[in-house]
Each structure stands twice: as structure tokens, then as C-alpha cells.
Amino acid sequence: MNVLVVSDTHGRIEPVVRYMLQNERLFDKVFHLGDHYKDALAIASATGREVIGIKGNCDPYADVSEDKLIDIEGKKILITHGHLYGVKYSLLRLHLHALENGLDMICFGHTHVATQTFEDGVMLFNPGSASEPRIGGYPSIGLVSISERGIFTTLIPLLQTQSSD
Known about the structure:
By secondary structure, the protein is an alpha/beta fold. The protein is built from three helices and ten strands, in the order βαβαβββαβββββ. The protein has one domain: Purple Acid Phosphatase, chain A, domain 2 (4-Layer Sandwich), CATH 3.60.21.
């Protein structure tokens, strides 16, 4: 099972939609990790794919949960934006939450910085921001491959198209 993971689109979904339409056979599910939840709905509409989304700190009026627990191939995965766990300061609270709840993976956003960490049998994965990368980064999304062999993550840079006038 392959899951496309998107976070922090902040109203700019075109590169994500373009990638999805050009690579639709590479993934089975799509997670949107918040900021902006309405973008998850727009991506689903533009691509015809189901997008499982949660709200982030910039989605105060979205009528959707801030966390979702999902089981894929026997792996327990939490998707969250990350702001409730203080991820801009440390991943410790996120890591402890995973250990306390028997999670195999947590996908999170909020920092706009791509992160892949595996410790104590737990994968913490942030695909970065699809629209506003920080710390010298580039717009990115992620691909998570889940099987009986384990969980594997890949960062995918989003190429920006330039208009020619």
C-alpha cells in the first residue's frame, strides 16, 4: 500500500494536483495533514481521488478532527498536523505519544520542514510543505510504502512551473 502524504498547502494546490494526475498509479491513498483543510477537499475534487484530511492550526472553523488513527496493512498510523504536540520545538511529545499508544507511525506537518525519523520502532514522518518550505528547503510531499516488511518513506520535490509570457 502506498500513501501520498501532503501538508501545509496554504491555498496553493496546483503542484500537488499536477503531481497526482501525472503519477496516479503510484499511490493508493492520500493524506492531507492540515493547513488548509479546504485544500484537501479541492484536491479530491480536482483529481477524483479520496483525500483523508485533518485540520491544522490554520483551520479553526473546519468541522473535522485534528487527529485520525488509521490502520493500514496491520500498522497503526496517526495523522495529525502536529501543533498540538509542539513539533516546532521538539518531536519528544510526538514520539512518546506513539510509544504510549502502540503506534507504528505518525505523519505530521506544521513545521514546513521535511523530517524522516525512525526510533524505538516508530516512524515519524513530515513531508514538508507543499507550498511554503522553510530552512532553505523546497516544496515537497511524501510517499509512504507500507507492507509486511515495514514502513518506508520517500520525499518528493514538487517542481514549480514557470509561466512564460
